[in-house]
Structure formats: structure tokens, C-alpha cells
Amino acid sequence: MFDKILIANRGEIALRVLRACKELGIATVAVHSTADADAMHVRLADESVCIGPPPSKDSYLNIPALLAACEITGADAVHPGYGFLSENARFAEILAEHNLHFIGPKSEHIRLMGDKIEAKKTARRLGIPVVPGSEGAVGPEDDAMAIAKAIGFPVLVKAASGGGGRGMKVAQTEADLMLALSTAGNEAKSAFGDASVYLEKYLQKPRHIEIQVLGDGRGGAIHLGERDCSLQRRHQKVWEEGPSPVLSAEARAKIGATCAKAMQDMQYLGVGTIEFLYEDGEFYFIEMNTRIQVEHPVTEMITGIDLVLEQIRVAAGGDLPCTQDEIVLNGHAIECRVNAENPVTFRPSPGRIVRYHPPGGLGVRIDSAAYQDYVIPPYYDSMVGKLIVHGKTRAECLMRLRRALDEMVVDGIETTLPLFRALVREPGIIDGDYHIHWLEHYLAAGDTKKP
Ligand code: ADP
């Protein structure tokens, strides 16, 4: 096992990793920008190192500074959290070159899945069903119109190196295709430095259902059921739950087994998420994330397995925590991403939290690095924290979530709490009858004008 882990992240996920390290008896090193000197993860870690000024590129993405921090503190492994360097294959390699462990998958798997076109090819090869689309990147020499017509309109133009919902444009009809190709290409070029795009069938009313996997890197791998992340705004997840309200035990076992088998064949190491769109009873692979995800607590609540702790264990050469048969899904969990944003316009609202009261009680979990008088800096994401609620049934979970949201107080900044208080009372949500465009329609209808 590792002796000392450096956590190359900030906010709630840095705290989450720190908690797992403490329970494993591993010493921790926090790193922080000058803007985060008072942050909770810095206070709770055994040691901390300032790695630069506020902009991420000068601090949390600053690889030489992170290496120096490992050297100074004697850390032997680095946990990247999510975002920042978590899916940077080169970072994983650089750490290895310095005799440091990267707590994550093998660098070749990070690289493979980071390229969405290669990821789709790999998925197809491993027997995972994919969204119909172009074979690979669609370049100027290709007849994009012919490819799109073969797929059938509407089609979605997607960036090969896309992420966070950027570099994606829908072409409803033939007339839209050229503009969608150039807009998506330009957006991808400026956001990711890579203009290559590909085409996919645009699914009309799918759900986003993702499978959590865990591999030991030696051919052992299991799946831990699914999360339904269909409630999205601008392709960004807002509310996640598990199990999905629409998936039968048979359908779960089938897609889960396909994913676990694929991870065994790859000899995948660590935690990962295989993301699908699900429509009319069919799964369509869209991408794989090779890191711990924001919404991982949903799975932890229904399986009782600490994913971050197991991620660290397998990275150190340990075995999987159990066999596939030993995984039993228990009850239902929902996560709400509470952001420092106006609940109607979603304009970021950084600043001082003047009053903070997290909810409590049975089945209520808060993953947050916020506290009273904490100032949310304007430089990073706007997350205040995640509220995760567990119940024996989905109905119990919803009632518990309703009361937990009503208890929660975050004053001084605007938050998305009023949106969640409205959502938890919406018939469409209560019935579990929603798809990936549901929230955008709901917001466009102005139902949250009076939160
Ligand atoms: P990113 O890496 O930018 O998050 P994804 O490929 O994971 O991109 O897609 C993000 C979201 O975009 C999905 O959850 C879904 O809402 C939407 N999306 C992606 N592909 C399609 C598709 N083929 N048809 C309809 N919606 C899609």
C-alpha cells in the first residue's frame, strides 16, 4: 500500500479522497493555489503545499509544481480526483518516469478512451453496442453529406476530443449540416486544440444511463450497476440517481455483464464509467470516463462499496473487494449538484457563504468542502456541494430528499437549491418519466421563475 498520497485537486473531491486515505491509514498531502489557502482540504490534510497562483493552468494543472510537491513531501502516489489532470495520459506517464504512482488506469487506456473515435472503435471491438455513426473522423476530403444521409437525419456533430458537452452541434436537416460541421470544428479547435469531428445519429428522447466498473488491471473486473443521469442542462448533469427508474434487473445484468467482460478483456485498472444513451430498450455507447466521477456517491449508497478507497487499493496492486455475485443493490439513491448559480439564469454566483446549515438524518449525505464564511472563489467550478440521499425505495428516497432540501441553508450567494426543491415536486420526476431533454424543456417553460 502507499505511504503518502498527494491529492492533485481541490474542493469536495479533494476532501472525498482525503477521507478515503484516512480510513486506509495513509498520510495525505494537499496542494492548493493561493486562492485556496483557507480551503477545507488544506486544513484537513497532514501536509499542504502551495503550488501557484489562482488560474488552474498555473496551479492545479502545473505538472512541474506537482512533481516538486511530491519531492518535497515524499509522497509516493498521486490521486488526481476528477477534472484537472485526471484524464491526462501524459501526466500518468510523467509520474511513472519519476517513480510515482498515478491512482488511475494505465496511461494507454486513458489515451484510448480520451479519443472518442478510438473509444467507439474499441467499444465496438469489445462487443459493446455503440450509437450508429461515421466510422471515424469526418474530414474535408470525405463526403459528409453522404455519410449523414446514410446515418439518417437528425445527426449530431461531435468533437473527437470533446468533453463537458462542448464541440457538439445538431444538424436537424441536410441544410444544417455544413454549418454544424464548421461550428463544432471551430469550437473543438479552440477548446481542445483539435478540430476533428465525427457524426452520430442524434437520438430524440434517450435517457443517459452509465455503468460503473472497477478493474484490478490483471483481468479481474466487476460492474456496480448503473446511474441514470438524464437530467441535464447543456449536456451537463444536474441530478443523478440509481438504480435507473426504467431499467429491469435483466437489462441491468445484461449490459453490466457486457461492460464487465469488456473491462476484463482490456485488463482495465481502477474505476471507470461506461456511458450510454438508452432508447426503446436499446443501449448505445457514447464514451468512457477513466476516472472517479462526480456522481460516484450514488453507487456507493446503493452498493455500500467505497469506490475511492477501492480505487486506491487496486492502484496499489490489491484485489477487487468482492465478486460480481456479492454485489447487491440496496434501495435507491439520488444526488443533486448544488451549484453557486442563479437557479433561473444559471449565472455563477461566487462569494461568501454567510450562513451554512447542511441537512442530516438517516440516509442523508453531503459531500462538500463548504463551511460558514467560506468564500467560493471565482476561478474554478461553481459547485457548493453534492446532496446525496438514500432510501429503501425510490418513493422513500424522494420524500427524504424533499425534506433534506428544505432543511439545507446556504445564504449569501445564489444557489441551485430552489431548482431542486421545485424538481423534487414535479410529477415527471416523481414518476421517473424523463429523458435527456426534459430539463431544458422544463426550464424553457419558465416553471422555475418563482423558485
Ligand atoms: P461530453 O464528453 O462532452 O460530456 P458525451 O458524449 O458524454 O459528451 O455526451 C454528453 C451528453 O450529450 C449526453 O449525456 C447526451 O445528453 C448528449 N448526447 C451525446 N451524444 C448524443 C446523441 N448521439 N444523441 C443525442 N444526444 C446525445
From TrEMBL:
One of its GO terms (biological process) is fatty acid biosynthetic process. Keywords: ATP-binding, Biotin, Fatty acid biosynthesis, Fatty acid metabolism, Ligase, Lipid biosynthesis, Lipid metabolism, Magnesium, Metal-binding, Nucleotide-binding, Transferase. This protein is a component of the acetyl coenzyme A carboxylase complex; first, biotin carboxylase catalyzes the carboxylation of the carrier protein and then the transcarboxylase transfers the carboxyl group to form malonyl-CoA. Its EC number is 6.3.4.14. Residues 1-444 form the Biotin carboxylation domain. SUPFAM superfamilies: Glutathione synthetase ATP-binding domain-like, PreATP-grasp domain, Rudiment single hybrid motif. This is Biotin carboxylase. It comes from Rhodopseudomonas palustris (strain BisB18). It comes from the Bacteria.
